[in-house]
């Protein structure tokens, strides 16, 4: 295989958006397509890794050899990830997890009334999945995050690297239509403690292989033979 370092390793990957219910027929979500996470899962499986892919709702086929766990909400994704995180060698948080959910989900479809010209939804913070994985003190996987930003890419990404205690973060400029959300292409700059690497715009499948190669290199640097 192209990536011998990943052979036999267990990778846990999140992908796609989450859906936060408002009522039985409505939800809050975002534009994540899941393509980057699925491309990483496919490339890792091809490299001989055991891959578990926890995904929000997306329109993508499960890559060959990948175990797929479908979830809807951030809370469900959190539960699915925490059940598996300590048996993974590598965790990659590629999902665009909703930062907030609706505080009280209505049991029935909310109705428009003539007196309701304004409606207020109260939101509460969701758990930070990747921060909880990175905070594991026992059997903590090598933890890789993504940062999709529309401005201040480098500084926001480096801040997330520190704050969430990640081993590596892939910063992704989503302000351009030429890459990022829904696109087949992406460009990222990866940051770690004391280093960075720009990976130029390319197909998400090729970029996935390059990211996995960097992860394998970083793991070897952290734990020299
Ligand atoms: O949303 P944010 O830009 O902070 O996301 C950065 C990283 O954190 C991503 O890897 C994302 O998957 C992860 N994340 C998470 N749980 C959240 C929010 C973000 O795992 N609630």
UniProtKB/TrEMBL annotation:
Note accompanying the cofactor annotation: Binds 1 FMN per subunit.
EC number: 4.1.1.36, 6.3.2.5
Pathway named in the protein's UniProt entry: Cofactor biosynthesis; coenzyme A biosynthesis; CoA from (R)-pantothenate: step 3/5; Cofactor biosynthesis; coenzyme A biosynthesis; CoA from (R)-pantothenate: step 2/5
Top-rank taxon, per record: Bacteria
MF terms in GO: phosphopantothenate--cysteine ligase activity; phosphopantothenoylcysteine decarboxylase activity
Gene: coaBC
Protein name as annotated: Coenzyme A biosynthesis bifunctional protein CoaBC
Protein family according to the UniProt entry: In the N-terminal section; belongs to the HFCD (homo-oligomeric flavin containing Cys decarboxylase) superfamily. In the C-terminal section; belongs to the PPC synthetase family.
Binding sites annotated in the UniProt record for CTP: 93-95, 99, 109, 127-130, 146, 160, 164
Catalytic activity, reaction form: (R)-4'-phosphopantothenate + L-cysteine + CTP = N-[(R)-4-phosphopantothenoyl]-L-cysteine + CMP + diphosphate + H(+); N-[(R)-4-phosphopantothenoyl]-L-cysteine + H(+) = (R)-4'-phosphopantetheine + CO2
Essential cofactor(s): Mg(2+); FMN
Keywords tagged on the record: Decarboxylase, Flavoprotein, FMN, Ligase, Lyase, Magnesium, Metal-binding, Multifunctional enzyme
DNA/pantothenate metabolism flavoprotein C-terminal domain mapped to chain residues: 6-217
Shown residues within the full chain: 195 to 419 of 420
Functional note: Catalyzes two steps in the biosynthesis of coenzyme A. In the first step cysteine is conjugated to 4'-phosphopantothenate to form 4-phosphopantothenoylcysteine, in the latter compound is decarboxylated to form 4'-phosphopantotheine.
Region (Phosphopantothenate--cysteine ligase): 11-225
């Amino acid at each position: 295989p192209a990536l011998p370092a990943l052979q036999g390793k267990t990778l846990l990957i999140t992908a796609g958006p989450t859906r936060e219910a408002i009522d039985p027929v409505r939800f809050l979500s975002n534009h994540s397509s899941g393509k980057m996470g699925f491309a990483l899962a496919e490339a890792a499986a091809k490299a001989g890794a055991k891959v578990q892919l926890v995904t929000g709702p997306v329109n993508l086929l499960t890559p060959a050899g990948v175990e797929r766990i479908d979830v809807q909400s951030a809370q469900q994704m959190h539960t699915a990830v925490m059940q598996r995180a300590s048996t993974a060698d590598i965790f990659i948080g590629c999902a665009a997890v909703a930062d907030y959910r609706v505080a009280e989900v209505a049991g029935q479809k909310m109705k428009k009334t003539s007196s309701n010209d304004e409606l207020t939804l109260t939101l509460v913070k969701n758990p930070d999945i990747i921060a909880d994985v990175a905070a594991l003190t026992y059997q903590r996987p090598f933890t890789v995050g993504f940062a999709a930003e529309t401005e201040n890419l480098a500084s926001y990404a480096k801040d997330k690297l520190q704050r969430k205690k990640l081993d590596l973060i892939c910063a992704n400029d989503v302000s351009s239509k030429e890459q990022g959300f829904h696109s087949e292409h992406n460009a990222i700059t990866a940051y770690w403690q004391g280093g960075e690497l720009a990976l130029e715009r390319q197909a998400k499948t090729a970029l996935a292989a390059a990211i996995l190669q960097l992860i394998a290199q970083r793991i070897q640097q952290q734990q020299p033979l």
